[in-house]
Amino acid sequence: MQITSQQHLFASKRSWIQHHKWLLLRRISQLSIFCLFMSGPWFDLWIIKGNLSSSLTLDTLPLSDPFIVTQSLFAGQLLTSVTLTGALIVTLFYIFAGGRVYCSWLCPVNIATDASSWLRKKFRIKSSSLFARNTRYWLLFTAFVMAMITGTLSWELINPVTLVQRGLISGLWISAAIMFAIFLFDLFISRNAWCGHLCPVGAFYSLLGRLGFIRVSAHNRANCNDCMDCFAVCPEEQVIKPALRGTDQLISPVILDINCTNCGRCIDVCNKSVFKFTHRFNHNTYVNKPLNQEPSQ
Amino acid sequence: MVSLQINTTRRRFLTETARTVCGVSLFGLGLGFYTQKAFSLPPTSLRPPGALSEKEFQAACIRCGLCVRGCPYDILKLADIIDQAATGTPYFNARHAPCEMCEDIPCLLACPTNALNKSLTTIDDARMGLAVLIDHETCLNYLGLRCDVCHRVCPLINEAITLEPQHNVRSGKHASFIPVVHSDKCTGCGKCEHSCVLETAAIKVLPAHLAKGEIGHHYRLGWQEKAKAGESLVSPDASHEYNLPEGLKYEHSGKGLIKN
Q1: Which terminus in chain A has less CB density within 10 A, N or C?
Q2: Which of A268-277, B39-48, B96-105, B133-142 has the lowest mean pLDDT?
Q3: Which residues contact B26 (CB under 8 A, 6 or more apart)?
Q4: Cα(A99)–Cα(A235) distance, rounded to whole angstroms?
Q5: ipTM of the complex
């Protein structure tokens, strides 16, 4: 990538806020969810109790992480109506919002790994990834198999995602420090390693997002000037290509890859306003010419 | 040329898949070993009331911390990754802060799973552990003093802990009041351990499997069987006869040797 995003920023007329709109919204989302959990212990204002594994909002609405609940099922435990309801609500939400919205709009680990990839670009730290992208699905499989073999939530003993968010919410600082370890690993050892290659939580949510309703579309792909900014900023760059470059093959401009996290970074960085949030059935391109052929899914 | 290219692609695919699968399998193996270790809950870490057996508890507990928030006395903690209890599971240390035995059991009601079993409705039926007066050498009551603190703080005083008078051999003329724990009543709340006045508690709450013996299932206690049947099962009871000179009798309980 010869042209850096910096040069493009100066070349464009878009303000800094426009360039960071979705990033800022995501950080606000991540921090406010944390604050909702912390308002209880800090200010005795109990809005949400529990943590991202399972919580109770305003003493009425139960929410449970379907990944942990599934592990518990594999470990041979029966669901209670509370966890079943909670897991169903969460599942339906992610089917609507796109599975990996969990990763980019909720998960606190995302802040650390985003910082790593930002610093990597800043200091031009170049190294390839040590892992294949599909390692996370093997790890997801391992988590379920281990739950079955050991009869317990084996993966949850070391799951960095739950360790970090539980550590932050319950003040277990050594657990929370895992976040820093992931930051360093992603920064110096392997690019985008945790969120992009290894994390089975993200893998699980990506599967939930197979039917994700809200999606990013390269609706204005005719305008693309091949600056590569979106590929450089995207944590899952493989998801963009079919949608962005698929005009000739009549591929829909909607990014349907289950590993798109709906983070909106591509929308932020693109100076040609190629991308926007839309729903998965909106295959229209900017010139309002619907594609004749539906994409095969 | 084409076949060579296919071969290299296939080769790359196979080696990369093998690399990932082997790496993940080795990881899974390590995780399995670690999981086995995680079942060994340290005896000083007690689970909240209604907890399933340790293995089942770890499978059912989704580590949300709602029980911790439910506890009005801030006694429960979630295990940090360096703690010996399984990561993220709730526990309390009786010597540090015991269970206050809330009548409505809010920690249990807060649990979204069955890890804390809802069939427990009366806190007196909880079995978080079993108090054991482990050290007879330092317990002040054993030394003949009237400390009695464990007995007096027990929420089930005179039921879970009773004081049994015994002859004080040292002084020869006093009684020692020995605290005795009754496993059919003790909830394992840990108030006795918490309030033991010694530097290190002489009475400790242990997990029931460490604290309690178990009689062989084929054992039959004669006196119980006799009471159940209403008569001796082995043979009719023969009254004991003492081989004594003429004119003398012996009564075993009480009078002793009797001259006619």
Answers
A1: C
A2: A268-277
A3: none
A4: 15
A5: 0.79
DSSP conformational letter for B178: E
Structural tokens at position A273: 């306003």
Looking at residue A199, its amino acid is C
- Domains of chain A, by residue range, sit at 5-14+214-279, 47-209
Q: Which CA distances in Å does B207 have to A128, A191, A272, B128?
A: 51, 47, 66, 7
Residue A288 clears pLDDT 50, i.e. is over it: no
Q: What are the structure tokens assigned to B33, written together?
A: 């070993």
Q: Which chain A residue is nearest to residue B35, measuring alpha carbons? A: A154
Chain B residue numbers with beta carbons less than 8 Å from the beta carbon of A147 are 59
Full-model pTM? 0.80
Mean pLDDT throughout A266-275?
86
What does CATH list as the number for A5-14+214-279? 3.30.70.20
pLDDT of B6: 66
- pLDDT, residue A177, reads 86
CA distance A17 to chain B (A): 36
A94 and B CB contact within 8 Å: no
Q: Which of A114-118, A153-157, B230-234 comes out lowest in average pLDDT?
A: B230-234
- Distance between A75 CA and the closest CA of chain B, angstroms: 6
Token pair 């198999």 in the structure block, residue: A145
B39 contacts chain A (CB < 8 A): yes
Q: For A156, which DSSP code? A: G
Q: Pick from A78, A83, A146: which is nearest to B31 by CB?
A: A146
Chain centroid to CA A148: 27
Three-state DSSP at B133 gives strand
**pLDDT at residue number B191:** 94
Q: Is the pLDDT of residue A1 over 50?
A: no
B144 — phi, psi (to 5°)?
100, 5
Show residues of chain A in contact with B60, CB under 8 Å: 72, 75, 77
Three-class DSSP category at B175: strand
Q: Within chain B, what is the greatest distance between any pair of CA atoms? A: 124
Closest-CA residue of A relative to B39 is A152
Taking CB atoms and an 8 Å limit, are B64 and A51 in contact across chains? yes
Residue of B nearest to A50 (CA): B66
